User: Which sequence fits this backbone?
């Protein structure tokens, strides 16, 4: 059983703050890692992918991967009300993807 | 957005009836996936395809079958729908089995 764990939240941050989202996974053979954003009633939207240890930055988003600790995180800087959504962590092993249940983020104006 | 459409977008059906959901993509992606999303369970893989006529099971494949006769189309069939199959179904596509996936808009299926 492949497991991907996320805190369900809800996580609330004030506008302009940094939001920190965390994810752990159980399979050491996992190869690639993704963060998706999902607005209520909509489909998941890819926001970040990361394949090697360290940090990857894209605009206000930074993904961090630590394979030794089996840990992936997503930082959102200068959080905006439009960032309010559920964030899904996904892990790839072989040809299959395993998703966490998501963390609900609310950015308070 | 990978040019993915799903049909129908909403469907209500009765227990015991067969149901087919369609996923169509215009991106020529090799890989296609079917997921279901339920509260408390997140997204779970049902079946996936790695090429025309090449498919494999995911973690929740019981009660479902798939077919892929063309690169652009991936069909999900519920042979005899049950209430436990009430869910939101998402199709996704990708260029390889290890890289990014892109999701379609989803189909909300209710089995009464």
Assistant:
């Amino acid at each position: 059983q492949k497991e991907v764990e996320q805190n369900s939240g809800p996580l609330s941050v004030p506008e302009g703050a940094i939001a920190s989202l965390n994810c752990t996974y159980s399979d050491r053979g996992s190869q690639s890692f993704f963060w998706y954003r999902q607005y209520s009633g909509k489909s998941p939207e890819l926001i970040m992918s990361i394949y090697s240890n360290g940090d990857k930055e894209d605009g206000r988003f930074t993904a961090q991967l630590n394979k030794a600790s089996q840990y992936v995180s997503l930082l959102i800087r200068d959080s905006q009300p439009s960032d309010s959504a559920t964030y899904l962590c996904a892990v790839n092993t072989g040809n299959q993807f395993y998703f966490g249940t998501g963390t609900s983020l609310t950015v308070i104006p | 957005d990978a040019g993915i459409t799903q049909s129908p977008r909403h469907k209500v059906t009765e227990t015991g009836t067969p149901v087919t959901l369609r996923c169509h993509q215009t991106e020529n992606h090799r890989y296609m996936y079917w997921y279901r999303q339920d509260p408390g369970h997140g997204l779970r893989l049902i079946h996936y395809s790695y090429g025309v006529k090449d498919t494999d099971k995911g973690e929740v494949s019981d009660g479902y079958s798939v077919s892929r006769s063309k690169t652009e189309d991936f069909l999900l069939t519920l042979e005899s729908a049950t209430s436990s199959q009430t869910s939101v179904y998402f199709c996704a596509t990708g260029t390889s089995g290890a890289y990014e996936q892109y999701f379609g808009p989803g189909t909300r299926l209710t089995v009464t």
The mean pLDDT of chain A is 94. The two ends of chain A are 40 Å apart (CA to CA). The interface with chain B takes residues 2, 31-32, 34, 36, 42-46, 49, 88, 90, 92, 94-102 of chain A (CB under 8 Å).
